Amino acid sequence: MGRVVFKTVESDIDAGTHDERLYDKALHPWRSKLRRWLTPLVRAETPYIAKLQSTIRTPVLDYYFLWTANLGTHTFFMIFLPILIWFENQHSKGIVCMAAFGVFTSGFVKDFMCLPRPLSPPVHRLSMSSSTSLEYGFPSTHSTNSISAALFMISVACESYSPDSPLRVVCIIGAFFYAVSIVFGRIYCGMHSVTDVVGGAILAYILYWVQWNFRYEFNDIFLNDSIVPIIFIVLGCLGLISIHPDPIERCPCFEDSVCFMAVLIGVFPGSWLCQHSDYCQLGQQTLALTQSTLPVAAFIVISKLILGVAVLFLWRIVVKKICYFILPPIYRAFNLPHRKFEIGARTYKSLNRESIHPIPSVLDLRHLAGTVAGAEHVGIQSDIDLHEKAAFDKHQKQQEFKHRGSQKETTVETPNVYDPTTLLVAEDAPLRYDVDIVTKLIVYAGIGFLAVCPVIMLFQFCGLSS
């Protein structure tokens, strides 16, 4: 159920309730101290990012960086990863795992640190996504995903091709260009500071290093005759979800983390089962594709995509409807707790009339129809921005007071005048119910399981594999 709420915030209430004391009271002391240490770094970069935008922005670059940003989003990886699995890439499951932990760890740190994005104004934000502005800034998930994927691609190219191979050079240059376009684009678009992308780069390298150096041990998990390691991995993923920190403001990072961890919860047992099924192994073969003429190969590729995506979307629609019917009474009967910013089951009667959109919210495909002009935002877009605006204004007042004190001048204090348009907070996001998180967990775990086992068996049954 979508909503767009515009609320005017009075300056006196804003300054009295939304400053650094809010975070000091809500966060653990050492967590608050760490945030106070990093926040000045982000704020100090804001005028420089605004200056950079005013100097180098052009319509061509706006268009380029807006569209390349989509290659580092959850949307891209949610669409790309099943395709990678279906067309038998030996590194596909490793890339899925690396991407999932990239989204989870970056979202974990975001909600843990509660660091703002560069303030707008003076920065102009360019984004096609309506939910990005609701997230904290540090570290950059785009940077984490793109850099880890680029490093992995470079390593695969160096391992697969000889040093003098043109394909090796092309892969390395392509991976480098991909990562640089997305990382610099986040700064150019005013969505992240240098501190954010550096944090994302460090996180990306850690994830890449672990996944690449332990890739053989990772693959051995699925070859093991015992399913016990898979069970422990699934329990570990559930444990990670349970310790995800609560943000101060409303932030969708937790939902994204649940979706990607749920995918792993389905991928691991599904991959193990497929590895121990002869029929599924036949479905992973690509003989029908490699030994066919170009028209036949194109038909096989398109048929696999249509069939695979149809199964996943049908699963999502049916299972979400079932969860909306079964889970609310269970939540009410056992009085189960829910997270902040969620509607408790005791406050609504039924979700049977709730519409189920065929496109998952995590994919956010609607923004692709937007224009460059519609993607530019100046002003407060979320509670996170609102709190940062209050803190920024308080800091400015303190600096002015110090300046007046040093000059020994007496001036009449004038109230802070706000531009009313900057005090409109748009909450363009669907309402979340307490059962939504468990529903997402079930739905996306099923998607992960279906993608790596039953769908591949279906390909074999339809004669699209061998």
From TrEMBL:
Organism of derivation: Circinella minor
Keywords, in A-Z order: Endoplasmic reticulum, Hydrolase, Membrane, Transmembrane, Transmembrane helix
Top-level taxon in the UniProt lineage: Eukaryota
Segments traversing the membrane: 64-87, 167-185, 197-214, 226-245, 257-273, 293-315, 441-461
Chief location category: endoplasmic reticulum
Gene Ontology terms, MF aspect: sphingosine-1-phosphate phosphatase activity
Protein name: Phosphatidic acid phosphatase type 2/haloperoxidase domain-containing protein
Organism ancestry: Eukaryota, Fungi, Fungi incertae sedis, Mucoromycota, Mucoromycotina
Entry-linked InterPro entries: PAP2/HPO, PAP2/HPO_sf
SMART domains: acidPPc
Membrane topology: Multi-pass membrane protein
Places the protein is found: Endoplasmic reticulum membrane
Gene Ontology cellular-component annotations: endoplasmic reticulum membrane
Any Pfam family hit: PAP2
